[in-house]
């Protein structure tokens, strides 16, 4: 089996050991063996990135833009091949995998353009004979730590702006999905950046995290993952005043009002709660439904859930693939049992499924008769498990929506302009969706949340400049 190495200082290097990449749709399918970096190699990658900063500064804007455009074009040309790899290692359907690779291509294309939009301000001083220039400069070295649920899109929306704005990168992907990370890195390795400007280190956070977070040669850290890990990173990074950006958990609400179009409401809830196995930080796991539509909505959603096909990610007709691994499956099943013990009514699903191949298949679960204080309505489960909260009216729905430590995405299904406008202003979330799934976001606009969901500047679009650059004000007499 071909070994896949880490990429440090412009060279592919063996790791301290290897890790097998297993297909969650078929655990007998080993996708490849990937090198695992140790702490020493991680420090080498950081040092290589630091040494590459001067060479990056000498790249012309056109050369940097062309390099990012190269990555974009190759991703798009290979979207079916790489989408198949993504679906095979993460478990989302083939269509979702191909779509994610295409999205990564669009992200690199967007930032190839942003390179050429570099701008500053020339301002008159309040003092005579003095001019003021305000410009943006690269940070230097950025550590990028990404999760397993979007193994090519999330790395793309961090790596592309980091390189676009002239920073050197050390990239650590999630261990569960090294294949997509390696494929993206291999393309970047041929794009024309100076040696050391981009580095890939695959390994355990407990082993290589200190190099990526605590090293004084790292100027900034961008992280997407769990709240618990984010808090540990924050304690380490802020302690040495490193710039930090984090996207963490969500317990996103989807409100269904009495006046909602029933078909729209059901489609929005189904997509938000269960597709991509609910393994999205923007997924809706709390369905907050007003009295007048509650029973009709639950019955209609129940009927639609019965039509969902849960099967191998690469099989034609599959709606939902497997959970990513045994650990995540165990967590989902544990929360389903917690819901039952708390007194919630499991009206559908929640069973481990058997298919032609041995995989981590779980039937999506729907609870009703839940209360806001139940653990299944407080904790992020990160699986295809949704709870219905019955409320009296819009005011009670809004209060329930905001009753969470998180604030990433929030949705409402309604035909009332009055309630839609009020919800947009008063939902305590970074992103608000009206008659749309909470999990659908565009790559050219800001992404991020409030409260326990996010920390630091927004990601994606023009907002990315805020994190990946620093402002310099110069006075000229």
TrEMBL record:
Keywords: Oxidoreductase. Gene3D superfamilies: Aldehyde Dehydrogenase, Chain A, domain 1, Aldehyde Dehydrogenase, Chain A, domain 2. It holds the Pfam family Aldedh. InterPro entries: Ald_DH/histidinol_DH (IPR016161), Ald_DH_C (IPR016163), Ald_DH_CS_CYS (IPR016160), Ald_DH_CS_GLU (IPR029510), Ald_DH_N (IPR016162), Aldehyde_DH_dom (IPR015590). The keyword Iron does not apply. The active site is at 247. Residues 12-473 form the Aldehyde dehydrogenase domain. SUPFAM superfamilies: ALDH-like. Coiled coil: none annotated. Belongs to the aldehyde dehydrogenase family. PANTHER family: ALDEHYDE DEHYDROGENASE-RELATED. This is Aldehyde dehydrogenase family protein.
